[in-house]
Amino acid sequence: MNLEKLSQETKLILDDILERSAIQKGQIFVLGLSSSEVAGGVIGKASSRDIGQVIVKTILDELTKRGIYLAVQGCEHLNRALVVERELALQKDLEIVNVLPSLHAGGSGQLAAFDYMADPVEVEFITAHTGLDIGDTAIGMHIKHVQVPLRPVQRELGGAHVTALTTRPKLIGGARARYQTDDIRKF
Fold first, then answer.
1. pTM
2. 72-93 tens-digit pLDDT
3. What angle is formed at CA 100 by the lines to CA 142 and CA 37, rounded to 5 degrees?
4. Phi-psi region of 106 (alpha: psi -120 to 50; beta: other; left: phi over 0)
5. Residues 151, 155, 161, 162: what is their CA dihedral angle, to the nearest 10 degrees?
6. What long-range pairs does 1-5 form, CB within 8 A, spacing at least 24?
7. Model pLDDT for residues 93-114, shown as the tens digit of each residue
8. H runs (alpha helix) in the chain
């Protein structure tokens, strides 16, 4: 696999999602990643540390420039716990759990987060504003309501299907209510 091309395509997809999601400085972006799927394999069966490192480093570098926090979702072996910076966990009073990911329990994305974050910790739950799902890893449980699907400019990364979610405020009040302009749906 061409890792330079993988980095470029990851950045292309990320830039598209960040622009259309209206995510702001200080908010949380969740990443679900199956490096097995990116490599053309079956989720959880062909994990690649190199692929995880390229994707996570590319995303982390871009989010850090914008002041957005990254949360990297683990696989079902870690109950979908997430790696975040300790600073975020303390700021949001998130429950830190004691586990270290491995290639086949947590996955390549979590290992890369431990490699590249300043002070990474695992937390049990998070409520993010926007997220990118590379390889159908089911990130919806970590995105706040109301979720809005985004179709990325590129819908595959390597062999992995790519989807994204963002959020918008709930519309309440019924038929007589009026609403502010929605940056996502543009109504």
1. 0.91
2. 999 878 889 999 999 999 999 9
3. 60
4. left
5. -50
6. 1/38, 1/39, 1/48, 1/50, 1/51, 1/158, 3/50, 3/51, 3/54
7. 999 999 999 888 888 999 999 9
8. 3-21, 35-38, 49-66, 86-91, 108-116
* Nearest CA among 55, 62, 69, 58 for reference residue 24: 69
Q: Which residue has the tokens 């929605």?
A: 182
Q: Considering the domain delimited by 3-167, tell me its CATH architecture.
A: 3-Layer(aba) Sandwich (3.40)
For residue 107, give both structure tokens.
């996955």
Residue 72: C-alpha distances to residues 1, 13, 68 (Å): 22, 17, 13
| Most distant CA atoms of the chain, gap in Å | 55
Q: How far apart are CA 168 and CA 115, in angstroms?
A: 32
Rounded Cα gap, residues 53 and 167, in angstroms: 27
CA pair distance 126, 55, nearest whole angstrom: 21
